[in-house]
Amino acid sequence: QPADIGRIDPFSPGGGAVLRTCLRLKEADLGKPIKFLVPDHPKAGGVTCCGAHYHEPFMRVAAGPDKPMLSYWHGPANSNNARHYPLNDFIHPLIGLDGEELTAASPGDHIHHRGVFWAWVRTERQGGWQNEWWIPRDFVAEPGRLEHDDGGATSCRFTAEHFWTYRPADPARGERFVREVVDCRVYGGSADGRAVDVDLTLTALVDGIRIGGQTTADKGYGGMTCRFGSATEVRMENDQGVIGSDSLNHVVAKWVDWTGRFTGPDGRRLPHRSGAALMVHPSHPAYPPEWIVRAYGPVGLAYPGLEMIDLPKNRPVCLRYRLWIHRGEAGPGKVPEAYRAYIADWRWKAG
């Protein structure tokens, strides 16, 4: 039987055209060299699958005027509403294949939750301050550079910079302590689903920076998180199978899938299940990591969990993730196949 060994997405370092190729091989051919020709400048007749456009404070990605895919808040945080925390540097809404909003931002149960976000409960500078980034207190993400392409035949991409800044009541004590770079690539997708890659690079700007997860009740949560919106018939799965509880901590998994019946863009409940899987790349520290999973919405990593880790000054830490947006449960939604495609280990050699 043929083995689905994955999907490759080579793209030129200069941000040129993108080529995606799917290969299916027999088991006997696995591990053997593969030779094929790639044109110098692959084109697709000028067709663009999606594009990224910035209108402060949002970077919006869409497949057309009436086909939004996601929005990313890059600009300064909105602190005008006293009910809300000053939040930015997150993805919301994340849109499903049928136009439904999959994520929630500042929901009533946890107003600090914000779509697809990355934050740590414990953040400290040894010998100095200690605070939390999960619910920002005296912390802000100062926006830096923002770059994006015009989209290609299979994907579009944007790169955003923020500076984690400690800003207490005394401005003289404020300082930038981490440079964060978010590299996001949104793929046009297929009938099976759509991939969104989110790669984070964290670089400490000063000595003594440490991050860690929630210690209350030994939950450990903190890191990449997806807060799903309101849905009925919620179902959670991972690479081990169906998750049989509405609330679990310290779940070890390579991916976690959350699906339900969402409300469509017309305000009516969709007749089918949909959702997304959050996937972790094998290069991730402590792979496969621990997670928290909640049927009411949040799914996220617990990395580094109950322990704290150092972010050495000027030494980047790279954390790679993929969101796979799909219809149906994990099986019909091709989540296992999508994960194999994501982790496919390709080595390119010029011939």
Which CATH architecture would you pick? Distorted Sandwich
Portion of residues in beta strands equals 35-45%
Structural class label: mainly beta
Kindly identify the CATH topology. Answer: Beta-galactosidase, Chain A, domain 5
- Multimerization status: single chain
Distance between the termini: 29 Å
* Total number of beta strands: 24
> In angstroms, what is the radius of gyration?
20 Å
Number of helical stretches of at least 4 residues: 1
Largest sheet composition: 9 strands, antiparallel
Order of strands, main sheet, comes to 10-11-12-13-24-20-19-16-17
Question: Which stretches of 5+ consecutive residues score pLDDT under 50?
Answer: 1-20, 38-45
How would you describe the overall organization of this protein?
The structure is a single chain. 3% of the residues lie in helices and 44% in strands. The protein is built from one helix and 24 strands. A nine-stranded antiparallel beta sheet has the order 10-11-12-13-24-20-19-16-17, with helices on one face. Strands 7-15-22-21-18 form a five-stranded antiparallel beta sheet, with no helix packed on it. A four-stranded antiparallel beta sheet has the order 3-4-5-6, with no helix packed on it.
Strand and helix layout:
Blueprint: E1 2-8, E2 21-26, E3 51-55, E4 58-62, E5 68-73, E6 90-94, E7 116-119, E8 122-125, E9 130-131, E10 139-148, E11 155-166, E12 175-187, E13 193-204, E14 209-212, E15 223-227, E16 232-238, E17 241-242, E18 247-252, E19 255-261, E20 274-280, E21 290-294, E22 298-301, E23 308-311, E24 317-327, H1 335-343
Antiparallel strand pairs: 1-2, 3-4, 4-5, 5-6, 7-15, 8-9, 8-14, 10-11, 11-12, 12-13, 13-24, 14-23, 15-22, 16-17, 16-19, 18-21, 19-20, 20-24, 21-22
